[in-house]
Amino acid sequence: MRLKGKVALVTGAGAGLGEATARRFAQEGATVIATDINAGTVEQVAADICAQGGLAEAITQDVTDESLWATLVAGIAARHGGLDVLVNNAGIAIPGSVEDTTLADWRTTQAINGEGVFMGTRAAISVMKERGGSIINISSIEGLVGEAQASAYNYSKGGVRIFTKSAALHCAAQGYPIRVNSIHPGFIRTAMVEEGIGSMPPEVQQEMEERLMREIPLKAMGEPLDIANGCLFLASEESRYMTGSELVIDGGYTCH
């Protein structure tokens, strides 16, 4: 029960990393507010958690809606007495190189992956600054290294990485008992990753799959639970001396 008594908001919790994190947090005693733009999937996740004896509620959220962020965190604070953990997980990946990415796809990626994290962090700080909390921003190894077919995604996740450090420094300078850290998943077996690879031209897809198995030292893609466990560590008091840090969970991919 490493999160007993804590209230945790997880965005993009209807599937993938967010779903795994919401379930893991509930197993460890947290009251989980699971949000997603897809109402049906996130409601099912919350229902499953409750059916298994956990505490969860589902809220439909578009992370690019600024007014909704204010309403969301204010409502959580009113219903639960505060907010202890935020996992800014919601994100998208639209494959494309610098030459073939459209401006529309670029802007959509930045709005969700970048602006959503900014607005979520800002909103969480407003309710955490008195009692403290942990903000966890899901970046990517592609916020650390480049990928030719992920130009917009690279840009957004690199921004999340350095923004996290800025927010961590601000909270520390203001004396807020808030820690802000980023997690950098490698290639994790989620629908988003598999669909992204599957959308590539056949020859590019084959080369990508072969390269991954060649360049991941542990010779396998990760599972969502691997990232959920990293989030659990950063959400718990076990990581009380960490802020502005980067937790890389990638099977060794970025060791090269």
Summarize it:
With 256 residues, the protein is of the alpha/beta class.
Features:
alpha/beta, 8 helices
Describe the model:
By secondary structure, this protein is α/β, with parallel strands linked by helices. It has helices at residues 16-27, 39-51, 66-80, 103-128, 151-174, 191-198, 202-215, 224-235; strands spanning 7-10, 31-36, 55-60, 85-88, 133-138, 178-185, 246-249. α1 (16-27) packs parallel to α2 and α3 (66-80) packs parallel to α4 (103-128).
Question: What topology emerges from the helices and strands here?
Answer:
Blueprint: E1 7-10, H1 16-27, E2 31-36, H2 39-51, E3 55-60, H3 66-80, E4 85-88, H4 103-128, E5 133-138, H5 151-174, E6 178-185, H6 191-198, H7 202-215, H8 224-235, E7 246-249
Parallel strand pairs: 1-2, 1-4, 2-3, 4-5, 5-6, 6-7
